[in-house]
Amino acid sequence: MLNVTRFNPLVDAFENWSRGVPVWLANAEARASAPMQFRMDVTENDKEYQVLAEMPGVKKEEISITINGNEVAVSAEVKHEKEVTNGGVVLRTERYYGKLQRAFTLGHEVDEATAQAKYNDGVLQLTLPKKIAAAAKRLAVH
């Protein structure tokens, strides 16, 4: 039998160029292994600020909240480990260690003593009461 192959210089040049380039396949598990920046919603009423932060996969013990006047910082130390085995032979081991952090400034100072934090199903809920400002005192000149 006779095999006839048509010469196409453009296709052949591309195949030769791409032969050494690695191909990354879309893998949802690989993309999800490193945590991304978490999203936050901040709302305000007359008495307090409400903050909702989506932090899926983070344990309650890993979350740290710092309040300094009207500045609030939320951070989490994330440790993600995964090991897949097949009959005692390790096929793949994945780890991620990192820190997620968000900081923001509010319009009023926060009363740290009455602030509350709840974490449920990957959502951190902060209730940050506004500090009652002391009324300006007028001094009499004698």
Task: Describe the protein's architecture and organization.
It is a single chain. The chain is mainly β. The protein has one domain: Immunoglobulin-like (Sandwich). It has a 4-stranded antiparallel β-sheet with strand order 1-2-7-6, with no helix packed on it. A 3-stranded antiparallel β-sheet has the order 3-4-5, with no helix packed on it. It is elongated.
Rg is 28 Å
Biggest beta-sheet profile = 4 strands, antiparallel
CATH class: Mainly Beta
Q: Tally the helices.
A: 2
What name is given to the CATH topology? Immunoglobulin-like
Summarize the helix and strand pattern as letters.
Answer: HHEEEEEEE
Brief rundown of the structure:
The chain has 142 residues and is mainly beta. The protein is built from two helices and seven strands, in the order H-H-E-E-E-E-E-E-E.
Ordered list of secondary-structure elements with their pairings:
Layout: H1 9-18, H2 28-32, E1 39-44, E2 48-54, E3 63-68, E4 71-86, E5 89-105, E6 116-120, E7 123-129
Antiparallel strand pairs: 1-2, 2-7, 3-4, 4-5, 6-7
